[in-house]
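User: Um, any thoughts?
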Amino acid sequence: QVQLVESGGGLAQPGGSLRLSCAASGFTFSSIAMTWVRQAPGKGLEWVSTIYGGGRDTYYADFVKGRFTISRDNAKNTLYLQTTSLKPEDTGIYYCAKGFTTLDAWGQGALVTVSS
């Protein structure tokens, strides 16, 4: 069955960086667009970024453009989100999800806390 397992969350200082990973299994990873979505404390889900299967086409929400980079290693069935210049408002649970317009599988989430 489809499995998505995030890792790499943690505590970062404002201006710091973290790299999130999402290990995928149970489907043909290289053929599927993958998405990062986040949820800040007490708020709804927020789309962050999407990458198409080949890895060349990427899309970002305005609030992370220039600070976050989505990438994938299709040989390792792994999705990444490199975060830099983190702000306190980036705090939240980050989920990787399978798909783009329809997200039909989700990981358990990785908690990112940005605080001094």
User: Anything to note?
Assistant: The chain has no helices and eleven strands. The chain has a mean pLDDT of 97. The radius of gyration is 13 Å.
